[in-house]
Design goal:
The chain is of the alpha+beta class and about 100 residues long. It has a single domain (about 5-95), classed as Transcriptional coactivator/pterin dehydratase (Gyrase A, domain 2). The protein is built from 3 helices and 4 strands. Strand 1 (about 20) and strand 2 form a beta hairpin. Helix 2 packs antiparallel against helix 3 (about 80-95). The radius of gyration is 13 Å and the shape is globular. The model has no long low-confidence stretch (mean pLDDT about 95).
Length: about 100
Amino acid sequence: MQPLQPQEISGALQALPEWTYEGGELRRRYQFPSFTYAMAFLAGAATVIEKMNHHPDWSNVYNRVDVRLSTHDAGGVTQLDLDLAAQMESLAQRLL
């Protein structure tokens, strides 16, 4: 899989307005109503992540989840990252 060009990433992020492209990766901070919602997001996303076999760099503090996506093997952001971001966004919108 080839890394996408910055202009391709910018165009794709029009459909993911809360996501940014910084430091060669896609980034998003989710702020959920509670710790329980954050955990529900992480658990739900884990199923999608395993099916895609594409694992994000993410962290959780109480009700906040920070996500960073890039395809390490490709050396940058690929379509796989955009697909995972869209899946995560869909799940998160049901919990926010």
